[in-house]
Write a structure and sequence with these properties.
The protein has 4 helices and 33 strands. It is mainly beta. The protein has a 5-stranded antiparallel sheet, with no helix packed on it. Strands 2-32-31-30-29 form a 5-stranded antiparallel sheet, covered by helices on one side. α2 packs across α4.
Protein backbone atom coordinates (compact mmCIF):
# COMPACT_ATOMS: atom_id res chain seq x y z
CA UNK A 1 0.00 0.00 0.00
CA UNK A 2 1.32 3.46 -0.92
CA UNK A 3 1.12 5.47 2.29
CA UNK A 4 2.91 8.46 3.77
CA UNK A 5 2.71 10.79 6.74
CA UNK A 6 3.03 13.68 4.29
CA UNK A 7 0.37 15.51 2.28
CA UNK A 8 1.06 13.48 -0.85
CA UNK A 9 -1.82 12.89 -3.24
CA UNK A 10 -2.28 9.22 -2.49
CA UNK A 11 -2.21 9.63 1.27
CA UNK A 12 -4.62 12.55 1.21
CA UNK A 13 -7.06 10.71 -1.02
CA UNK A 14 -7.08 7.58 1.07
CA UNK A 15 -7.60 9.46 4.34
CA UNK A 16 -10.69 11.15 2.79
CA UNK A 17 -11.40 13.39 5.76
CA UNK A 18 -14.16 15.47 4.17
CA UNK A 19 -16.21 17.84 6.33
CA UNK A 20 -19.81 18.95 5.83
CA UNK A 21 -21.16 22.23 4.50
CA UNK A 22 -20.58 22.84 0.80
CA UNK A 23 -19.40 26.35 -0.11
CA UNK A 24 -17.69 26.72 -3.48
CA UNK A 25 -16.65 30.04 -5.00
CA UNK A 26 -14.82 30.67 -8.25
CA UNK A 27 -13.66 33.78 -10.10
CA UNK A 28 -15.06 34.54 -13.54
CA UNK A 29 -11.92 36.29 -14.80
CA UNK A 30 -8.21 36.27 -14.09
CA UNK A 31 -8.14 39.78 -12.70
CA UNK A 32 -11.20 39.47 -10.48
CA UNK A 33 -9.59 39.14 -7.08
CA UNK A 34 -6.07 39.06 -5.72
CA UNK A 35 -5.02 36.63 -3.04
CA UNK A 36 -4.46 37.90 0.47
CA UNK A 37 -0.66 37.96 0.38
CA UNK A 38 2.11 38.29 -2.14
CA UNK A 39 4.95 35.76 -2.06
CA UNK A 40 8.46 36.67 -0.97
CA UNK A 41 11.35 35.22 -2.99
CA UNK A 42 14.64 34.16 -1.40
CA UNK A 43 17.45 32.89 -3.65
CA UNK A 44 20.56 30.83 -2.92
CA UNK A 45 23.30 29.37 -5.13
CA UNK A 46 24.51 30.25 -8.60
CA UNK A 47 24.56 28.44 -11.91
CA UNK A 48 27.58 26.69 -13.35
CA UNK A 49 27.78 29.45 -15.98
CA UNK A 50 26.91 33.06 -15.19
CA UNK A 51 26.56 35.79 -17.79
CA UNK A 52 27.62 39.28 -16.60
CA UNK A 53 24.90 41.76 -17.53
CA UNK A 54 23.92 45.31 -16.62
CA UNK A 55 20.26 46.34 -16.68
CA UNK A 56 20.02 50.13 -16.76
CA UNK A 57 17.00 51.95 -15.41
CA UNK A 58 14.48 52.60 -18.19
CA UNK A 59 14.03 56.26 -19.08
CA UNK A 60 10.52 57.58 -18.50
CA UNK A 61 7.81 56.58 -16.05
CA UNK A 62 5.62 53.47 -15.91
CA UNK A 63 3.44 54.20 -12.90
CA UNK A 64 4.34 52.12 -9.87
CA UNK A 65 6.37 49.43 -11.66
CA UNK A 66 10.11 49.67 -12.24
CA UNK A 67 10.75 47.77 -15.48
CA UNK A 68 14.46 47.52 -14.74
CA UNK A 69 13.91 46.12 -11.24
CA UNK A 70 11.56 43.41 -12.46
CA UNK A 71 13.99 42.35 -15.21
CA UNK A 72 16.90 42.29 -12.77
CA UNK A 73 14.90 40.17 -10.32
CA UNK A 74 13.88 37.73 -13.07
CA UNK A 75 17.41 37.19 -14.32
CA UNK A 76 18.78 36.89 -10.78
CA UNK A 77 16.26 34.15 -9.90
CA UNK A 78 17.52 32.01 -12.77
CA UNK A 79 20.98 31.87 -11.18
CA UNK A 80 22.50 32.12 -14.66
CA UNK A 81 23.22 35.84 -14.67
CA UNK A 82 25.56 38.02 -12.63
CA UNK A 83 24.10 41.49 -12.34
CA UNK A 84 26.63 44.29 -12.80
CA UNK A 85 25.63 47.37 -10.83
CA UNK A 86 23.85 49.89 -13.04
CA UNK A 87 21.82 51.62 -10.36
CA UNK A 88 20.97 55.25 -11.03
CA UNK A 89 22.06 54.76 -14.64
CA UNK A 90 19.35 55.65 -17.13
CA UNK A 91 19.87 55.30 -20.87
CA UNK A 92 17.40 56.44 -23.49
CA UNK A 93 16.53 54.00 -26.27
CA UNK A 94 18.36 56.31 -28.70
CA UNK A 95 21.50 56.54 -26.55
CA UNK A 96 24.89 55.79 -28.05
CA UNK A 97 26.42 52.90 -26.14
CA UNK A 98 29.93 53.31 -24.76
CA UNK A 99 30.80 49.63 -25.21
CA UNK A 100 34.31 49.89 -23.77
CA UNK A 101 33.05 51.61 -20.61
CA UNK A 102 30.52 48.85 -19.90
CA UNK A 103 33.04 46.14 -20.68
CA UNK A 104 35.47 47.78 -18.26
CA UNK A 105 32.76 47.63 -15.60
CA UNK A 106 32.53 43.88 -16.14
CA UNK A 107 29.31 43.79 -18.15
CA UNK A 108 29.47 41.55 -21.21
CA UNK A 109 25.85 42.52 -21.95
CA UNK A 110 23.77 45.66 -21.42
CA UNK A 111 20.00 46.11 -21.58
CA UNK A 112 18.31 49.49 -21.49
CA UNK A 113 15.27 51.28 -22.83
CA UNK A 114 12.62 53.97 -22.67
CA UNK A 115 8.98 54.26 -21.63
CA UNK A 116 6.59 56.69 -23.30
CA UNK A 117 2.94 57.36 -22.52
CA UNK A 118 0.00 58.34 -24.73
CA UNK A 119 -3.19 58.56 -22.69
CA UNK A 120 -3.70 55.27 -20.84
CA UNK A 121 -1.31 53.41 -23.15
CA UNK A 122 2.41 52.95 -22.58
CA UNK A 123 5.13 51.92 -25.02
CA UNK A 124 8.17 50.17 -23.60
CA UNK A 125 11.14 50.07 -26.00
CA UNK A 126 14.27 48.13 -25.14
CA UNK A 127 17.65 47.21 -26.58
CA UNK A 128 20.11 44.45 -25.70
CA UNK A 129 23.75 44.81 -26.74
CA UNK A 130 26.89 42.71 -26.50
CA UNK A 131 29.59 45.02 -25.15
CA UNK A 132 32.38 42.56 -25.97
CA UNK A 133 31.47 42.12 -29.63
CA UNK A 134 30.05 45.68 -29.81
CA UNK A 135 26.88 44.46 -31.50
CA UNK A 136 23.15 44.74 -30.93
CA UNK A 137 21.42 41.47 -30.06
CA UNK A 138 17.80 42.51 -29.75
CA UNK A 139 15.43 45.47 -29.98
CA UNK A 140 11.66 45.58 -29.54
CA UNK A 141 8.80 47.86 -28.51
CA UNK A 142 5.82 46.53 -26.54
CA UNK A 143 2.56 48.37 -25.85
CA UNK A 144 0.38 48.00 -22.78
CA UNK A 145 -1.47 49.62 -19.91
CA UNK A 146 -0.03 50.57 -16.55
CA UNK A 147 -1.44 47.33 -15.11
CA UNK A 148 0.49 45.36 -17.74
CA UNK A 149 3.94 46.79 -16.92
CA UNK A 150 5.09 43.74 -14.92
CA UNK A 151 3.94 41.47 -17.74
CA UNK A 152 5.91 43.54 -20.27
CA UNK A 153 8.99 43.43 -18.02
CA UNK A 154 8.72 39.62 -17.83
CA UNK A 155 8.46 39.47 -21.64
CA UNK A 156 11.64 41.53 -22.00
CA UNK A 157 13.42 39.33 -19.44
CA UNK A 158 12.37 36.28 -21.48
CA UNK A 159 13.86 37.82 -24.63
CA UNK A 160 17.13 38.64 -22.85
CA UNK A 161 17.35 35.12 -21.41
CA UNK A 162 16.77 33.48 -24.80
CA UNK A 163 19.10 35.78 -26.76
CA UNK A 164 21.97 35.06 -24.39
CA UNK A 165 21.43 31.43 -23.37
CA UNK A 166 19.66 30.11 -26.49
CA UNK A 167 16.88 28.69 -24.25
CA UNK A 168 13.37 30.09 -24.06
CA UNK A 169 12.68 32.02 -20.85
CA UNK A 170 9.84 31.24 -18.44
CA UNK A 171 9.44 34.55 -16.64
CA UNK A 172 6.11 35.23 -18.40
CA UNK A 173 4.63 31.88 -17.39
CA UNK A 174 2.33 31.19 -14.45
CA UNK A 175 2.12 28.72 -11.62
CA UNK A 176 -0.90 27.21 -9.86
CA UNK A 177 -1.12 25.89 -6.31
CA UNK A 178 -3.53 25.26 -3.44
CA UNK A 179 -3.46 27.48 -0.37
CA UNK A 180 -5.06 26.13 2.80
CA UNK A 181 -5.88 28.60 5.56
CA UNK A 182 -7.64 26.93 8.48
CA UNK A 183 -10.54 24.97 6.98
CA UNK A 184 -10.63 27.05 3.78
CA UNK A 185 -9.00 26.06 0.51
CA UNK A 186 -8.14 28.29 -2.44
CA UNK A 187 -6.92 27.30 -5.88
CA UNK A 188 -4.66 30.16 -6.92
CA UNK A 189 -2.60 31.08 -9.94
CA UNK A 190 0.28 33.55 -9.91
CA UNK A 191 3.10 34.82 -12.06
CA UNK A 192 6.20 32.64 -12.10
CA UNK A 193 7.82 34.97 -9.53
CA UNK A 194 4.89 34.49 -7.15
CA UNK A 195 3.47 37.96 -7.73
CA UNK A 196 -0.04 38.88 -8.91
CA UNK A 197 -1.83 35.93 -7.26
CA UNK A 198 -5.44 35.33 -8.32
CA UNK A 199 -8.09 33.11 -6.70
CA UNK A 200 -9.67 30.68 -9.16
CA UNK A 201 -11.69 28.59 -6.72
CA UNK A 202 -12.54 28.86 -3.04
CA UNK A 203 -14.07 26.03 -1.03
CA UNK A 204 -14.61 24.68 2.47
CA UNK A 205 -13.51 21.31 1.09
CA UNK A 206 -10.17 20.00 -0.08
CA UNK A 207 -8.88 20.95 -3.53
CA UNK A 208 -5.97 18.89 -4.83
CA UNK A 209 -4.02 17.93 -7.94
CA UNK A 210 -4.31 21.02 -10.18
CA UNK A 211 -3.00 20.43 -13.70
CA UNK A 212 -2.60 22.99 -16.51
CA UNK A 213 -3.93 22.31 -19.98
CA UNK A 214 -1.16 22.55 -22.62
CA UNK A 215 -2.56 25.85 -23.93
CA UNK A 216 -2.71 27.38 -20.44
CA UNK A 217 -6.41 28.16 -20.74
CA UNK A 218 -7.79 25.52 -18.35
CA UNK A 219 -7.03 23.78 -15.09
CA UNK A 220 -8.08 20.26 -14.19
CA UNK A 221 -8.24 19.51 -10.47
CA UNK A 222 -9.94 17.40 -7.83
CA UNK A 223 -12.56 18.91 -5.53
CA UNK A 224 -14.20 17.22 -2.52
CA UNK A 225 -17.24 19.52 -2.48
CA UNK A 226 -19.59 16.59 -3.21
CA UNK A 227 -18.29 14.70 -0.17
CA UNK A 228 -16.11 12.63 -2.51
CA UNK A 229 -13.24 13.43 -4.89
CA UNK A 230 -14.48 14.52 -8.32
CA UNK A 231 -12.34 15.69 -11.28
CA UNK A 232 -13.29 19.09 -12.69
CA UNK A 233 -12.01 21.12 -15.64
CA UNK A 234 -12.24 24.89 -15.26
CA UNK A 235 -11.81 27.46 -18.03
CA UNK A 236 -9.81 30.29 -16.50
CA UNK A 237 -11.03 33.19 -18.60
CA UNK A 238 -14.76 32.51 -18.10
CA UNK A 239 -14.65 30.64 -14.80
CA UNK A 240 -16.83 27.87 -16.24
CA UNK A 241 -16.16 24.54 -14.51
CA UNK A 242 -17.39 21.12 -15.57
CA UNK A 243 -17.13 17.75 -13.77
CA UNK A 244 -15.46 15.34 -16.20
CA UNK A 245 -15.05 12.32 -13.89
CA UNK A 246 -17.65 11.63 -11.23
CA UNK A 247 -17.80 7.86 -11.01
CA UNK A 248 -18.45 5.63 -8.01
CA UNK A 249 -15.60 5.81 -5.52
CA UNK A 250 -12.58 8.11 -5.90
CA UNK A 251 -11.93 10.19 -9.02
CA UNK A 252 -8.44 11.61 -8.84
CA UNK A 253 -5.03 12.58 -10.28
CA UNK A 254 -5.92 14.29 -13.60
CA UNK A 255 -3.11 14.77 -16.14
CA UNK A 256 -3.36 16.29 -19.63
CA UNK A 257 -2.06 14.72 -22.81
CA UNK A 258 0.51 16.87 -24.66
CA UNK A 259 -2.05 17.85 -27.31
CA UNK A 260 -4.74 18.68 -24.73
CA UNK A 261 -7.27 16.24 -26.18
CA UNK A 262 -7.23 13.70 -23.34
CA UNK A 263 -6.87 13.33 -19.61
CA UNK A 264 -5.37 10.46 -17.68
CA UNK A 265 -7.18 9.91 -14.37
CA UNK A 266 -7.35 7.41 -11.52
CA UNK A 267 -10.65 5.75 -10.56
CA UNK A 268 -11.53 3.31 -7.79
CA UNK A 269 -14.87 2.38 -9.38
CA UNK A 270 -13.87 -1.31 -9.35
CA UNK A 271 -12.65 -1.24 -5.75
CA UNK A 272 -8.98 -0.39 -6.26
CA UNK A 273 -7.26 2.64 -7.80
CA UNK A 274 -6.59 2.06 -11.49
CA UNK A 275 -5.58 4.30 -14.41
CA UNK A 276 -7.98 5.37 -17.15
CA UNK A 277 -7.99 7.86 -20.00
CA UNK A 278 -10.88 9.94 -21.29
CA UNK A 279 -11.44 12.82 -23.67
CA UNK A 280 -11.07 16.30 -22.23
CA UNK A 281 -14.85 16.69 -22.21
CA UNK A 282 -15.27 13.52 -20.12
CA UNK A 283 -16.30 11.16 -22.92
CA UNK A 284 -14.74 7.89 -24.12
CA UNK A 285 -13.55 6.46 -20.79
CA UNK A 286 -10.95 3.72 -21.30
CA UNK A 287 -9.02 1.61 -18.82
CA UNK A 288 -5.30 1.51 -19.58
CA UNK A 289 -4.47 -1.78 -17.84
CA UNK A 290 -5.49 -4.08 -15.03
CA UNK A 291 -3.42 -4.42 -11.89
CA UNK A 292 -4.05 -6.34 -8.65
CA UNK A 293 -2.64 -3.43 -6.62
CA UNK A 294 -2.81 0.37 -6.61
CA UNK A 295 -1.78 2.33 -9.72
CA UNK A 296 -1.94 6.11 -9.37
CA UNK A 297 -0.42 9.51 -10.30
CA UNK A 298 -0.25 9.00 -14.09
CA UNK A 299 1.57 11.48 -16.33
CA UNK A 300 1.88 11.45 -20.10
CA UNK A 301 5.37 11.20 -21.53
CA UNK A 302 6.55 14.04 -23.76
CA UNK A 303 5.66 12.14 -26.95
CA UNK A 304 2.16 11.35 -25.67
CA UNK A 305 2.61 7.64 -26.36
CA UNK A 306 3.09 6.35 -22.81
CA UNK A 307 2.22 7.01 -19.19
CA UNK A 308 4.52 7.06 -16.19
CA UNK A 309 2.81 6.29 -12.90
CA UNK A 310 3.23 5.20 -9.28
CA UNK A 311 2.38 1.65 -8.19
CA UNK A 312 2.94 -0.63 -5.24
CA UNK A 313 2.69 -3.73 -7.44
CA UNK A 314 6.29 -4.62 -6.53
CA UNK A 315 5.69 -4.47 -2.78
CA UNK A 316 6.52 -0.79 -2.23
CA UNK A 317 5.81 2.43 -4.14
CA UNK A 318 7.90 2.71 -7.30
CA UNK A 319 7.56 4.42 -10.67
CA UNK A 320 6.62 2.54 -13.82
CA UNK A 321 5.98 3.24 -17.49
CA UNK A 322 3.30 1.69 -19.70
CA UNK A 323 2.26 2.28 -23.35
CA UNK A 324 -0.90 4.37 -23.63
CA UNK A 325 -2.69 1.44 -25.26
CA UNK A 326 -1.82 -0.84 -22.34
CA UNK A 327 0.56 -3.77 -22.08
CA UNK A 328 3.42 -4.69 -19.78
CA UNK A 329 4.57 -1.98 -17.36
CA UNK A 330 8.30 -1.26 -17.13
CA UNK A 331 9.76 -0.36 -13.74
CA UNK A 332 11.86 2.84 -13.86
CA UNK A 333 13.06 3.48 -10.28
CA UNK A 334 15.29 1.12 -8.32
CA UNK A 335 17.12 3.38 -5.84
CA UNK A 336 15.40 3.50 -2.48
CA UNK A 337 12.23 1.83 -1.32
CA UNK A 338 9.81 4.72 -1.85
CA UNK A 339 9.50 6.72 -5.09
CA UNK A 340 6.28 8.53 -6.08
CA UNK A 341 4.85 11.49 -8.05
CA UNK A 342 6.70 11.14 -11.38
CA UNK A 343 6.91 14.14 -13.72
CA UNK A 344 8.60 13.84 -17.15
CA UNK A 345 10.54 16.82 -18.47
CA UNK A 346 9.15 18.67 -21.51
CA UNK A 347 11.76 17.09 -23.80
CA UNK A 348 11.52 13.64 -22.20
CA UNK A 349 15.17 13.53 -21.18
CA UNK A 350 14.55 13.65 -17.42
CA UNK A 351 12.10 12.41 -14.85
CA UNK A 352 11.65 14.07 -11.45
CA UNK A 353 9.88 12.44 -8.52
CA UNK A 354 9.63 12.31 -4.74
CA UNK A 355 11.92 9.84 -3.03
CA UNK A 356 12.23 8.93 0.66
CA UNK A 357 15.80 8.63 1.90
CA UNK A 358 16.68 8.18 5.57
CA UNK A 359 13.20 9.33 6.55
CA UNK A 360 13.34 12.55 4.49
CA UNK A 361 11.17 13.21 1.44
CA UNK A 362 13.34 14.74 -1.30
CA UNK A 363 13.06 15.62 -4.98
CA UNK A 364 15.15 13.41 -7.25
CA UNK A 365 15.92 13.57 -10.96
CA UNK A 366 16.64 10.66 -13.29
CA UNK A 367 18.23 10.68 -16.73
CA UNK A 368 15.73 8.65 -18.76
CA UNK A 369 18.41 7.19 -21.05
CA UNK A 370 21.08 6.19 -18.55
CA UNK A 371 18.88 5.75 -15.48
CA UNK A 372 21.35 7.75 -13.36
CA UNK A 373 19.80 9.58 -10.42
CA UNK A 374 20.55 12.90 -8.74
CA UNK A 375 19.02 14.19 -5.52
CA UNK A 376 18.02 17.82 -6.04
CA UNK A 377 16.72 18.78 -2.58
CA UNK A 378 17.53 17.99 1.03
CA UNK A 379 14.02 17.55 2.47
CA UNK A 380 12.71 16.83 5.02
CA UNK A 381 9.30 17.19 3.38
CA UNK A 382 9.50 18.10 -0.32
CA UNK A 383 6.51 17.13 -2.47
CA UNK A 384 4.72 17.59 -5.82
CA UNK A 385 7.54 18.41 -8.26
CA UNK A 386 6.68 20.17 -11.54
CA UNK A 387 8.99 21.10 -14.43
CA UNK A 388 9.20 24.61 -15.84
CA UNK A 389 8.13 24.52 -19.50
CA UNK A 390 11.75 25.01 -20.64
CA UNK A 391 12.91 22.10 -18.48
CA UNK A 392 15.50 24.18 -16.62
CA UNK A 393 13.83 24.37 -13.19
CA UNK A 394 11.55 22.33 -10.94
CA UNK A 395 8.81 23.78 -8.75
CA UNK A 396 7.76 21.88 -5.60
CA UNK A 397 6.16 22.33 -2.19
CA UNK A 398 8.31 22.16 0.90
CA UNK A 399 8.34 22.54 4.66
CA UNK A 400 11.27 24.72 5.71
CA UNK A 401 11.81 25.83 9.29
CA UNK A 402 8.29 24.71 10.13
CA UNK A 403 6.81 26.89 7.36
CA UNK A 404 4.92 25.66 4.31
CA UNK A 405 6.46 27.21 1.18
CA UNK A 406 6.76 26.90 -2.55
CA UNK A 407 10.28 26.27 -3.72
CA UNK A 408 12.18 26.06 -7.01
CA UNK A 409 15.42 24.27 -7.81
CA UNK A 410 17.46 24.28 -10.99
CA UNK A 411 17.60 20.86 -12.62
CA UNK A 412 21.27 20.53 -11.61
CA UNK A 413 20.39 21.35 -7.99
CA UNK A 414 22.75 24.35 -7.83
CA UNK A 415 20.24 27.20 -7.56
CA UNK A 416 17.39 27.27 -5.03
CA UNK A 417 14.47 29.69 -4.68
CA UNK A 418 11.94 29.87 -1.85
CA UNK A 419 8.60 31.55 -2.49
CA UNK A 420 7.16 31.85 0.98
CA UNK A 421 3.56 32.82 1.74
CA UNK A 422 2.76 34.97 4.74
CA UNK A 423 0.17 32.52 6.06
CA UNK A 424 -1.41 29.18 5.27
CA UNK A 425 -0.20 25.89 3.85
CA UNK A 426 0.90 25.94 0.20
CA UNK A 427 0.48 22.62 -1.60
CA UNK A 428 0.24 20.85 -4.94
CA UNK A 429 2.13 23.39 -7.12
CA UNK A 430 2.22 23.01 -10.87
CA UNK A 431 4.07 25.14 -13.44
CA UNK A 432 2.03 26.35 -16.39
CA UNK A 433 2.97 26.19 -20.08
CA UNK A 434 4.62 28.91 -22.16
CA UNK A 435 2.45 31.95 -22.72
CA UNK A 436 1.03 32.21 -26.21
Amino acid sequence: MITSNTSSLAARLWRRTVVGGVSVFFMAALGSQAAHAQLRVDISGVGATQYPIAIADFAGTSGGTSIGEVIRADLTRSGQFRLVNASNTSLDIQSTVAYSDWQARGADYLAFGSITQAGSQYTVSYRLVDSVRKTELDQVSINGTEEEMRKIAHQIADRIYEKITGIRGVFSTRIAYVLQTGNAYELQIADADGQNPQVMLRSKHSIISPAWSPDGGKLAYVSFESNKPVVYVQTLRSGQRVPVANYKGNNSAPAWSPDGSKLAIVLSRDGISQIYTLNADGSDLRRVMRSPLIDTEPRFTADGQSLVFTSDRGGNPQIYKVPLGGGDAQRLTFSGGYNISPRPSPDGSQLVYVTRRNGAFRIASMDTKSGSEQLLTAGPDDQSPSFAPNGMQVLYSSVQGGRSVLAVTSTDGRVKQTLSALSGKVREPTWGPFAN
